[in-house]
Write a structure and sequence with these properties.
124 residues, mainly beta, 7-stranded mixed sheet, 48% strand, globular
């Protein structure tokens, strides 16, 4: 059974950069589409970006297009979310999630396997 875990969160100033990692701690990740979601207290968990199991298809929320990139290294059993030009509104707990099927999407109901989350705080 696939299990995933996030890392790389922290405190960063506006305009800064962070790289989040989603690693498989058990099972195989190479068959799974991986998505990143984020959540702040009192709000719904929202999709940020996703990548298909082959790495050939990606999606981004409008709010992060042009600032975030997503990639995967199946040999390393990891998916990376590189976040640039960070804004205060990017603050939240970031979760990675795994799902199985064609391509990927940013609907949280589609994903069966979730990590515990990593906190990202963008503040001066």
């Amino acid at each position: 059974q696939l299990q995933v875990m996030e890392s790389g969160g922290g405190l960063v100033q506006p305009g800064g950069f962070l790289r989040l990692s989603c690693a498989a701690t058990a099972g195989r990740m190479d068959y799974a589409s991986i998505s990143w979601f984020r959540q702040v207290p009192g709000k719904e968990r929202e999709g940020v970006s996703c990548i298909s199991h082959t790495g050939t298809y990606t999606e981004f929320a409008d709010s992060v297009k042009g600032r975030f990139t997503i990639s995967r290294d199946n040999a390393q059993k990891s998916v990376y979310l590189e976040m640039g030009s960070l804004k205060s509104e990017d603050t939240g707990v970031y979760y990675c999630a795994a799902g199985f099927g064609r391509d990927c999407n940013l609907h949280k109901w589609w994903y069966d396997i979730w990590g515990q989350g990593t906190q990202v705080t963008v503040s001066s």
